[in-house]
């Protein structure tokens, strides 16, 4: 018998990226992580740059693989790169 996590793993890897508001998502364990709004079992952990450890707009669900882009101006009080610079 497979678990729910196994059933969704990687399922949305090839789906188009979705624009979401971080502030609209359900928080998971703190101020940054969110429950995946698509599969509801994975977590969006937020990504930071290696260079200056700033938050990135792009994120991906750790379970289903769905790609997201945050369209907020800031997250948990930290500003995000301008939307025009996001890939
Ligand atoms: Zn997911």
Tell me what you see in this structure.
- The structure is a single chain.
- The chain has one helix at 4-8; strands at 18-20, 34-35, 43-44, 58-60, 67-70, 74-75, 78-79.
- With 87 residues, the protein is mainly beta.
- The relative contact order is 0.24.
- The model has no long low-confidence stretch (mean pLDDT 93).
- Strand 6 (74-75) and strand 7 (78-79) form a beta hairpin.
- It has one domain (4-75).
- It has a three-stranded mixed beta sheet, with no helix packed on it. It has a two-stranded antiparallel sheet with strand order 2-3. A two-stranded antiparallel sheet has the order 6-7.
- The chain has one helix and seven strands.
- Bound molecules: zinc ion (ZN).
- Residues 36, 38-39, 42, 61, 63-64, 66 line the site of zinc ion.
How does the SSE layout of this entry go?
Layout: H1 4-8, E1 18-20, E2 34-35, E3 43-44, E4 58-60, E5 67-70, E6 74-75, E7 78-79
Parallel strand pairs: 1-5
Antiparallel strand pairs: 2-3, 4-5, 6-7
The chain binds zinc ion.
What binds here, in terms of ligands, is: zinc ion
Amount of beta strand: 15-25%
Assembly state here? single chain
Number of strands: 7
Query: What is the distance, rounded to the nearest whole angstrom, between the alpha carbons of the first and last residues?
Result: 39 Å
If strands are numbered along the chain, what order do they take across the biggest sheet? 1-5-4
Q: Give the radius of gyration.
A: 13 Å
- How much helix is in the residues? under 10%
* The number of domains: 1
Give the low-confidence spans: none
What class, by secondary structure content? mainly beta
Q: Please give the count of helices.
A: 1
What is the general shape? globular
